[in-house]
Write a structure and sequence with these properties.
By secondary structure, this protein is of the alpha/beta class. The chain contains nine helices and twelve strands. The strands form three sheets. Strands 2, 5, 6, 7, 8, 9, 10 and 12 form an eight-stranded parallel β-sheet that branches. A two-stranded antiparallel ribbon has the order 1-11. Strands 3-4 form a two-stranded parallel sheet.
Length: 254
């Protein structure tokens, strides 16, 4: 039995880039990776606006505390993608991917400090056409958060529903947002969260063709090794939600 303290220590080691494989190798944390399920949470704004997609910093802190108390360990987007690639990667026993859509500035102001303080990491999906908008994450903030261990993916350029668009427009959204984010980060960007959860076969085909590896939907559910790479389910978290553990249990079906 691993204590909560040790769990958190191991998670923190992963973030710090310390030889996780060495630690894991000697611990019982890695087993049954093939059967593992990974909940992918999706938050939006973190603040005090009345929108149902906004959670308060207090709610976020309470959610994260419960996750840590229950032994969940946040993983990076890259770790998650490696899991889908079927590589036998080192992972904690209860991995979880926390995502934030829409790239609001309040993610930096209200979520990032909590994540840092708790030794957790998350993935942020950015609308690149809004990079220089006042209430969104600027390129400088994104770079700062990336240096702090956060991951980033595309949420397209304009946030229009891809599933209702024609081929060339879909391609433009996918290619341009990817390129813009890659120039900000100086590294490959290969994950997309479909705006408004809208996608179809064309969207998947184009995303695959232009270099994406994974596509996140807003269909409720949990991810497993056999989940389709471009139809990944997530667990949305809303303003009115109660205990995060019961939300995962309720919305985290396969
Ligand atoms: Zn969105």
């Amino acid at each position: 039995m691993i204590s909560r303290r040790k769990f958190i220590k191991i998670c923190a080691s992963a973030i710090a880039g310390i030889g996780l494989s060495k630690i894991i190798f000697q611990s019982p944390l890695v087993n049954g990776a093939a059967n593992r399920q990974i909940p992918v949470l999706v938050y939006h704004r973190v603040g005090y606006t009345k929108d149902y997609l906004t959670v308060t910093p207090e709610k976020l802190e309470a959610d994260f505390k419960i996750l840590q108390d229950q032994g969940y360990c946040t993983i990076s987007l890259e770790q998650f993608q490696n899991f889908l690639d079927d590589r036998n990667i080192d992972m904690p026993d209860k991995p979880i991917l926390i995502t934030f859509d829409d790239g609001y500035l309040d993610n930096f102001q209200n979520a990032y400090p909590i994540l840092k303080r708790r030794g957790m990491i998350a993935t942020f999906f950015i609308i690149t056409g809004m990079l220089w908008t006042d209430d969104r994450l600027s390129p400088e903030r994104i770079v700062e958060m990336a240096q702090g261990g956060m991951s980033f993916g595309s949420h397209t350029v304009t946030h229009r529903p891809l599933g209702q668009m024609v081929w060339d427009d879909i391609k433009e959204e996918l290619v341009n947002s990817k390129a813009e984010l890659e120039s900000v980060l100086g590294r490959t960007v290969n994950a997309i969260a479909y705006p408004q959860g809208s996608y179809n076969k064309n969207v998947i085909m184009i995303a695959d063709n232009v270099g994406y590896k994974t596509g996140f939907t807003v269909h409720e559910g949990i991810c497993v090794k056999t989940s389709p790479d471009f139809e990944l389910r997530r667990i949305p978290i809303f303003k009115y939600d109660g205990d995060i553990a019961s939300v995962i249990a309720r919305r985290g079906g396969i």
